[in-house]
C-alpha cells in the first residue's frame, strides 16, 4: 500500500469497450484503433475492465493482457499522459487483491473495485468497509470504490459508507454509477477533492456533477463522443455554463438512447458503424465537428 496516495487527475475517463474476433480472442487492431481514437479525442484516462470492458467474460490472464495492451498502445503513440484505471472487482478479498497486483504490473495507475455481491444481504456496512479497506491495504496502487447497484445485486453504497472509506490513505476516489447527485454532493462537500475524487458514472449528470464539485466523469458515452465530453468540461472550466448546458442536454438524451440500444452492444454498434437514433445521430455530427 502507498501512504497518502493521490487521487487521479480531474477530467473525463472512458470505460473502453473491448473488441473480439470470431474465435472470441481479442481483436487487437480494433482495440488499438479505439484506444487511439479516445486518446486523440483528449480524454484524461481510460478505464480498462470497467462494466463496459467485459471483465466478467475474461480470464485473469486476459484481464491483465487488456491492461498491458492499452498501456503499450498509448505509450507507443505518444499518449503517456493518459491515465489507466483498471477494474479489479471480484467475489472474494483474495481474488480482488490478486487482480489489483496484476493491474499494477500491467501498467494501471489506479484500481476501481466493485463490492462482492453473491450474497448481498450479508454485506453489511461493516463488512463492506472491511472488504474495501483490506483490499486497499494490500494494493500496490491506489484504489477507488465502484458503486453500481445494477451489477451488484442491488447493493447501493451510501455516502456514509463511502465517506468512511475516503478516510483510508490508499482509497482515493469513487465512481457513482448510481448517478445520485445528492450522494455526490454530500461527498464532495465533505471530502476535499485533493484527497478523494468523486466521479459520476453516467453522462446525463456530467455537468450537474461538475457544478456539485465532482472530479469529472467516468462514463460509457465518451466511447462514442470523447470530444463532445471534453468540450463540456472545457466550457465549464471557462465559466461558459449556458454553452455547456446546450451540449449537456444532448448528452442526456444520447445517454438514454444508448442504454435502450443495449449498453455494451449499443456502444460497439455506434462506434463501429456510426448509426444511431435522433439524438445519437446529432451527437455524432457534433463529435465530428470538434
TrEMBL record:
Stored Pfam families: DHDPS (PF00701)
Record bears the keyword Methyltransferase: no
Residue positions of the active site: 146 (proton donor/acceptor), 175 (schiff-base intermediate with substrate)
A molecular function (GO) term: 4-hydroxy-tetrahydrodipicolinate synthase activity
CDD domains for this protein: DHDPS-like
Positions of pyruvate binding: 218
Record's keyword terms, sorted: Lyase
Membership in a protein family: Belongs to the DapA family.
PANTHER family listed in its UniProt record: 4-HYDROXY-2-OXOGLUTARATE ALDOLASE, MITOCHONDRIAL, DIHYDRODIPICOLINATE SYNTHASE
Protein name: 4-hydroxy-tetrahydrodipicolinate synthase
Taxonomy of the source species: Eukaryota, Fungi, Dikarya, Basidiomycota, Agaricomycotina
Amino acid at each position: 500500500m502507498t501512504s497518502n496516495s493521490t487521487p487521479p487527475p480531474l477530467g473525463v475517463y472512458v470505460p473502453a469497450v473491448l473488441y473480439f474476433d470470431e474465435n472470441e480472442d481479442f481483436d487487437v487492431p480494433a482495440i488499438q484503433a479505439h484506444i487511439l481514437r479516445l486518446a486523440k479525442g483528449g480524454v484524461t484516462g481510460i478505464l480498462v475492465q470497467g462494466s463496459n470492458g467485459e471483465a466478467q467474460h475474461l480470464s485473469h490472464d486476459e484481464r491483465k493482457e487488456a491492461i498491458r495492451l492499452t498501456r503499450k498502445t498509448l505509450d507507443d503513440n505518444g499518449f503517456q499522459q493518459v491515465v489507466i484505471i483498471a477494474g479489479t472487482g471480484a467475489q472474494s478479498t483474495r481474488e480482488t487483491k490478486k487482480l489489483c497486483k496484476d493491474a499494477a504490473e500491467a501498467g494501471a495507475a489506479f484500481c476501481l473495485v466493485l463490492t462482492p455481491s453473491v450474497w448481498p444481504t450479508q454485506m453489511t456496512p461493516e463488512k463492506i468497509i472491511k472488504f474495501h479497506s483490506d483490499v486497499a491495504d494490500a494494493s500496490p496502487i491506489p484504489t477507488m470504490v465502484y458503486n453500481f447497484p445494477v451489477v451488484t445485486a442491488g447493493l447501493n453504497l451510501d455516502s456514509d459508507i463511502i465517506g468512511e472509506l475516503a478516510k483510508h490513505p490508499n482509497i482515493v476516489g469513487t465512481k457513482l454509477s448510481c448517478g445520485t447527485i445528492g450522494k455526490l454532493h454530500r461527498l464532495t462537500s465533505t471530502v476535499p477533492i485533493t484527497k478523494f475524487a468523486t466521479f459520476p458514472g453516467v453522462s446525463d449528470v456530467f455537468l450537474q456533477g461538475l457544478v456539485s464539485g465532482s472530479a469529472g466523469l467516468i462514463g460509457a458515452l465518451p466511447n462514442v463522443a470523447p470530444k463532445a465530453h471534453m468540450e463540456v468540461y472545457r466550457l465549464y472550466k471557462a465559466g461558459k455554463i449556458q454553452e455547456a448546458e446546450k451540449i449537456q442536454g444532448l448528452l442526456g438524451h444520447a445517454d438514454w438512447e444508448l442504454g435502450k440500444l443495449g449498453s455494451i452492444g449499443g456502444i460497439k454498434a455506434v462506434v463501429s458503424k456510426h448509426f444511431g437514433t435522433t439524438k445519437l445521430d446529432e451527437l455524432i455530427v457534433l463529435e465530428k465537428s470538434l
